[in-house]
Amino acid sequence: MAQTTVKQLASETGIPVERLVSRLAEAGVEARSAEDQISDEDKLKLLSHLRNAESARSGGKLGAKRSSVSLRRRSTSELKVNTGRGSTSGRTVNVEVRKRRTFDKGNEQTDEEPVAEEVSEARTEQLEQERAEAEAAENAKREEEQRKAAAEQAQRDEEERQRAENEAKRQADIAAQKEAEDKARREAMERERAKHGKQAVQTDTTRSRVQENLRRAAESHGRTDDDIKREKEREQGEKAAKRKELHVAEGKQGRRKDKKKRGGGGRRQKNVNVATEHTFERPTAPVIRDIEIPELITVADLAQKMAVKGGEVLKRMMKLGVMATINQTVDQDTATIIVEEMGHNPKPVAAESAEEALEQEVHAEEEQVEGVTRAPVVTIMGHVDHGKTSLLDYIRRTKVQAGEAGGITQHIGAYHVIHDKGAVTFIDTPGHAAFTRMRARGAEITDIAILIVAADDGVMPQTKESIQHAKAAGVPIVVAVTKMDVPSADLEKVRAGLAAEDLIPESWGGDIQVVPVSSKTGEGVDDLLDALLLQAEVSEFKAPIDVPARGVVIESSLEKGRGPVATILVKAGRLKRGDTILAGPHHGRVRAMFNELGEQVKEAGPSIPVEVLGLSGTPEAGDSAFVVANERKAKEIAAQREEQQRDTKLAQQQAARLEEVFSAMGENGPAETKDLNLLVKGDVQGSVEALVESLRKIPSQEVKIRIISSGVGGISESDVELAMASQAIIIGFNVRADNKARKSISESGTDVRYYSVIYEAIEDVTNAVNGLLGTELREEIIGLAEVRDVFRSSKLGAVAGCLVADGAVVRGQPIRVLRDNVVVYEGELESLRRHRDDVNRVPAGTECGIGVKNYNDIKPGDQIEVYERTEIQRKVDVAETA
Ligand SMILES: Nc1nc2c(ncn2[C@@H]2O[C@H](COP(=O)(O)OP(=O)(O)OP(=O)(O)O)[C@@H](O)[C@H]2O)c(=O)[nH]1
């Protein structure tokens, strides 16, 4: 039988020990001290005594109410546990046993005397009851929450169903639209292919393979494996959303609320009610993006743009029949198909550099703004010693900032003249060479050309050249007849000479202003300025002002203490100090600006030349300059320009070639005619005229032959520059290029054709413009010897002591004798000797003796050209271009 001490019972029942001892005594149980043992029987005795006492106290009411009594007991014991692993000691575990026993007495009345202590029993019971009530309330609440959750779930399910329905409808629409687009594209491609015939066979094959697979995919109800997979994923996503499987991080507020609800020691609340408006929902429909596609793109970049893995793109490509690697570049068409196939919207974009974008931006802005009248920009050209520099100097000395002492203190490559009736800007580098060089670089800065003709000399070869350059550039000409103060001045002779060059003076009924001037006396200089302003008025030179400034570099240099200095002629807008500019491949902030007087200026408008300090390097004359929004953009474009500079140089040097004339026509479409620019030089006026006449008459439907210049004499550097600037081919008839011109030809790659028979020249050009196949006789100069001295021997006749300047002189090859770059004799070698020995070949840098067969008129200063005739196949492929 279980025994317990009085003390233990006292603590269990919450009755003080002394009181319990006295109650036990009253109940007839003998227990005197706290340590005395009492049995269960004793406890029952005590209980019955207490009930009776309580019943007596409350008049039996309490006993009637109470139908059961609960007793709780707690006992603790020790348990030895063997931990194993050879341990002998084991471990001691305290075991606490709690028991509760309830005595149900029904409504049985008791006559035992009730006692005050029984109140504690009643409190215990009341606590139990409260707890039960709390539990019931909680259960009710939980049920209510579950009911609410179920209602919400039902609503969500309904929404999901609606969404799925809408999505299915949308997908169906997309599929229908896609099919229609595919069909249209296929038809367009078919048409395109039919139109262009064979084009990039490789690309076509790839594309057609892709198209074929596309078609097949479309046939299989437009659903590919990936589509099915995507649908499955979507379904799973929907299910997951329904189950609310995703871990949801509630807002902080929600969490705090939760804590409050729990209270201290409260039962842990289950996180049932999830606030759905804060949840992350996995997208249930694929995201359709607009994908920009450049002309070339790597598979990796394409995947990144579509936010998918590279492998997925490769897989899709494989299905379309294109094998590729992740780093492989695909063309725009292929990329477009892939993007479409992957369910996105392809947006093909034309390759556009940051510079092109900037230029477009600038032009768009300029177009929106009304231009204001600006000063004309003038270049002076003419024959050597006809007075270009003297005239410029006179104007500069007397007209710059009229009335101010000092005049120009600095040479900056251009200056600005303010005249009574307006302003004129002069480019301070006279001569057509500078003009043409600028043109060749794409910088058309000259508005008017002043053609200088000395009154005592008349129209000379370089005058004619200047006329041709100005005409080729389409620049209006004003003629200044200089040296009018010289007694031998003959204005009428000059007028006649001009008329012969198709420049009919106004006084002769034409439209060319001819102004007689003298740089010595200043006579006529004002009239010249008036004439320029009149021409400017007629031409209406305008430029926008309220736009970001842009201009052209006139010249630049690296100066000690100032760094890179560039003279920029502003073409539009106002260039200001502090602006970020880009000039050629260099950039920087305009640190300071100076005018031609060396004065600092804060800003410069259109047609004003200024020296600019602050660039990172020295740009080239003809480079364009732009004001850009920020340094970053300037740097970006500068870097691009640097990279492009080599290509640009190459492109500029990519002179027109006769063989390419016909094939290049297709580029602008068959309907568009193409100009073939020719520059003709010949030995005598008669042959030049005959050649020009015949060339002009060559019949061609697609090519318009333009003779941009023709003249007598050897081919000069200036001829080559003009040919470069005008993309012209040079025809040399019995003439050759001089040393400087040869260098320029080899640097620029200009196509120069030498002929000695007019018929051959005509045939070559005719064949080229008609795209005819066939062979062509090409002459290649293999050696050039300069005649230093001439010896005469009775046996050999005239023997030329020569130095081989270029290539090699080879026996057995045909030769020509050139005098001032004009062919004076054609024939063959009689003898080739070195130190009295007959030799077959003499290389460059070596002296030798040359005897020319049947020609004894050779002179020191002549050149002997050795050439080779080869038959070459024309490059033009009629089959391809037809
Ligand atoms: N009397 C007189 N002499 C002039 C006039 N203009 C130029 N000269 C003289 O002609 C010569 C050549 O003049 P420049 O101005 O050097 O001629 P240019 O065309 O610039 O010559 P290059 O630079 O060699 O092409 C010089 O001796 C000048 O003094 C003029 O109007 N009257």
From TrEMBL:
Positions of the UniProt region annotated as G-domain: 376-524
Pfam families reported for this sequence: EF-G_D2, GTP_EFTU, IF-2, IF2_assoc, IF2_N
Comp. bias regions, Basic residues: 254-270
Keywords of the record: Coiled coil, Cytoplasm, GTP-binding, Initiation factor, Nucleotide-binding, Protein biosynthesis
Region span, Disordered: 53-272
Start-end of Basic and acidic residues biased regions: 120-193, 206-240
InterPro entries: DNA-bd_dom_put_sf (IPR009061), EF-G-like_DII (IPR053905), IF2_assoc_dom_bac (IPR013575), IF2_II (IPR044145), IF2_N (IPR006847), P-loop_NTPase (IPR027417), Small_GTP-bd (IPR005225), T_Tr_GTP-bd_dom (IPR000795)
Listed name of the protein: Translation initiation factor IF-2
PROSITE patterns, A to Z: G_TR_2 (PS51722)
Family: Belongs to the TRAFAC class translation factor GTPase superfamily. Classic translation factor GTPase family. IF-2 subfamily.
HAMAP family referenced in this protein's UniProt entry, alphabetically: IF_2_B
Organism listed in the record: Salinisphaera japonica YTM-1
Record field: compositional bias (Acidic residues): 109-119
Stated role: One of the essential components for the initiation of protein synthesis. Protects formylmethionyl-tRNA from spontaneous hydrolysis and promotes its binding to the 30S ribosomal subunits. Also involved in the hydrolysis of GTP during the formation of the 70S ribosomal complex.
